[in-house]
Design goal:
This protein is mainly alpha-helical and 217 residues long. It is built from nine helices and two strands. The longest helix has 33 residues.
């Protein structure tokens, strides 16, 4: 889902860069107000974990593979604003050092994987927590948010490719969303397992569980 240079028309990647810059500014201000001393090292550790985890691909079918996006994990641990910044840093490092995604398309990649991937987490986790007992709702909510984040990101990515004339929207949207619906299952499993582990060992690190007001044992 890391869009390379040359795949998006200027009419798409320039506004995407503007939206990404605005989101970075907003999230930076929100994070600077809300972040505590304990949160800063957690942001660093989370970024390092997601960066390393994204290096590992898991096979899907027919030569297609996927990897963790990490937006749901980052937002569950840190909240949507700090989580967005963490994924943005990861994507930027991957772009500049490993050429994973283009520089002109970095704004679009940030909006797809960082913004979309973190903004949907808290409402879904809170919904799961309100329905299911104890910590099960938080874990299932985080897992569902992981799946939604991948599918939603692929949807916006396919729209960008379609509007850039790379392929007809009627073809690229179902193709991208279909494949990433399967990839999202892996994201959901990893996210649910990781959040469940933290709820057992360090529940104080799980921002979404704390914000739900129902951090229960």
């Amino acid at each position: 889902m890391h869009i390379p240079d040359g795949f998006l028309a200027a009419k798409v990647w320039i506004p995407a860069w503007g939206a990404a810059a605005g989101a970075i500014g907003l999230c930076s201000r929100k994070t600077s107000v809300a972040v505590g001393q304990k949160t800063i090292p957690v942001m660093g550790v989370t970024a390092a974990f997601i960066f390393a985890a994204q290096m590992l691909n898991f096979p899907i079918a027919g030569g297609v593979s996927g990897h963790l996006l990490g937006g749901a994990i980052a937002a569950t641990l840190l909240g949507p604003y700090a989580g967005f910044l963490v994924i943005t840093v990861v994507l930027t490092v991957q772009c500049l050092i490993f050429q994973d995604g283009g520089l002109t398309t970095l704004g679009a990649n940030i909006m797809n994987m960082a913004f979309v991937g973190t903004s949907c987490v808290y409402p879904i986790v809170r919904l799961g927590d309100s329905i299911m007992p104890k910590k099960t709702g938080v874990v299932l909510g985080a897992a569902l948010a992981g799946w939604v984040s991948v599918v939603a990101a692929s949807f916006f990515c396919s729209l960008e490719l379609g509007f850039s004339g790379r392929a007809p929207i009627a073809l690229v949207v179902p193709a991208m969303v279909g494949v990433h619906s399967v990839i999202g299952i892996g994201e959901a499993i990893i996210t649910g397992f990781f959040v469940g582990f933290l709820l057992k060992t360090r529940p104080d690190l799980v921002w979404s569980a704390a914000k739900s007001g129902r951090r229960r044992t």
